[in-house]
Amino acid sequence: MVPAANGSAFMEAGKIKVMAAVYGPRQRPASAGSTSSSSPVLLCDFKFAPFASPSRRGYLKDSSERAASLSLLRALEPAVRYEALPERSAVDVFVTVLEEDGVQASVASAITCASVALADAGIELYDLVIGCSAAFLPSSPDTPTNVLLDPTVVESTHPSCTGSLIMAAMPSLAEVAHFELDGSVSGEEVGESIDLALDACASLHGAVKAVIAGSGSGDTVS
Amino acid sequence: MLLSPAEIDYITKSCDRNIRTDGRSRLDLRPFLIETGLLAQANGSCRLRVDATDVVVGVKAEIGSIVPERFEEGAEGDRDEDDAEVVRDVQAQTEDGGDGATDRGRVVCSVDCAPSAAPYLSPLALQSLSAELSQSVSRLLNGPGGGLDLKSLCIIPRRTCWVLYVDAMILDSSGHLLDPLHLAVRAALLTTQIPLVTVQRVGTGALDLDYDVSADRTVPVNGAIGVPVTVTLHRVGTRLIADPTAQEERCATARVTVHVDGKGRVCGVKKGGKGGLEAGLVKEAVREGRRVGLDVVKGLDKVLEEEGKGQRVGFFAA
């Protein structure tokens, strides 16, 4: 996707279009973290393109993008084999969302896309990190559950939506890399949503793995 | 703080056996000492101590504009991105069809970690810790699970509202800071009294309204009782522990923060830490966090209820 980068990936999920580029490992910039420690660092940068949303976004990161950058870092960190990276090095992950469809779903896609780009760059990972989002909407006769996986922007900003979550899982290890939930939901709903989101991550995992095996020749997976 | 491999091993193994270094079992909390109403200049205040952790929270209520004033003048050059975001949010909500979604007050949070709270951190790291803590409080209180009735803080629709400034100082720390911080913020908001405001009509137009701030009558903040408390469970070894000491926190590989309100609703969950976490442990964390959180809410409400009757210990009490 990005020839200048060490690794890159592009992903479309419904309306969402995300691209990720990974540079490194390269020398750690002086600005990154404390200089006393020699351990390698992962630097994540999440940005919506100015034309990604119905209303224009500025070039500087706003607070939702800063929060998303942090979520991305938290999601990828558990998968990276830091000990395999050189000392005092940094790996930069740049994710640009070209078209969004709900912030949570965009961040979830960004996580998946970034982990593929990391793998493409040859950064050693314990497992691919697969992102998944969900929204809590009161059930109706045709939806037996309150949990809606991979919500669109209409669903995740619906007035009756009581909460939303982002899950990042490492399915081969059966571990959760990152999880965040906002809103006000009951304890049972949380438990149910964790199970559903984990299943979704596991089913995506195989498809994403197949793309990497085919070395990203633009395969369409369902 | 540095721990030797032997110390880490000792702490990890003792957590697995459900006896922690200070004699607690895994989900026991340390007792906390709380006092409210000790800052005369603030509308609500609280000081909370857990072991060496020392948090002071002051809530000041000020009357502000629903859309910050500088946008109305439209000075493009002065806007920074945060402000532009507020404008976008406000515009987005106005476009909803004017159902009053913008007619709400807001909470502005800042957390300041005194250098004495974490002497081992560099000034830069201290700043990012403070930023992370204030972001957590701000996100919770302004978000959908914050509990506060922000609409009731609106004075004149589309124009004037109360702005609650929640300022916390962390003077000393021993262990995880998020839980005591959120607890102190809840206690401060519960005891906050804002002046009573009456709105009068001064003309015939829809916005020809004026307001009058009462000098002596005050009201509590609506919905403060619904503000969640926070329980963070840390994974040490293969098990989860609540309310870790500073040493135990260093041994944790991952943590799950759970916000719970008095009705037992989960108002937010966030995983932190560098390591992964088994799916079963995430569910266990939410379940146990909810249970422990409910006990904390009950405990705090009881303490605040009895506080008026007991003898006040004062700011400088040990």
TrEMBL record, chain A:
Superkingdom to which the source organism belongs: Eukaryota
InterPro entries membership: ExoRNase_PH_dom1, ExoRNase_PH_dom2_sf, PNPase/RNase_PH_dom_sf, Ribosomal_Su5_D2-typ_SF, RNase_PH
GO biological process terms, semicolon-separated: nuclear mRNA surveillance; poly(A)-dependent snoRNA 3'-end processing; rRNA catabolic process; rRNA processing; U4 snRNA 3'-end processing
Keyword rRNA processing applies: yes
GO MF, any single term: RNA binding
Signal sequence bounds: none
Domain Exoribonuclease phosphorolytic: 2-124
Family annotation (Gene3D superfamilies): GHMP Kinase, N-terminal domain (3.30.230.70)
Subcellular location field: Cytoplasm; Nucleus
Name assigned to this protein: Exoribonuclease phosphorolytic domain-containing protein
Naturally occurring in which organism (per UniProt): Gonapodya prolifera (strain JEL478) (Monoblepharis prolifera)
From TrEMBL, chain B:
GO MF: mRNA 3'-UTR AU-rich region binding
Subcellular location: Cytoplasm; Nucleus, Nucleolus
Keyword hit for Electron transport: no
One GO CC annotation: nucleolus
Record-linked InterPro entries: ExoRNase_PH_dom1, ExoRNase_PH_dom2, ExoRNase_PH_dom2_sf, Exosome_comp_Rrp42_subfam, PNPase/RNase_PH_dom_sf, Ribosomal_Su5_D2-typ_SF
Alphabetic keyword roster: Cytoplasm, Exosome, Ribonucleoprotein, Ribosomal protein
Gene3D superfamilies, alphabetized: GHMP Kinase, N-terminal domain (3.30.230.70)
Any one Gene Ontology BP term: nuclear polyadenylation-dependent rRNA catabolic process
Record's keyword annotation contains Cytoplasm: yes
Residue span(s) of domain Exoribonuclease phosphorolytic: 29-195, 226-289
A Pfam family per the record: RNase_PH
Family note: Belongs to the RNase PH family.
Descriptive protein name: Ribosomal RNA-processing protein 42
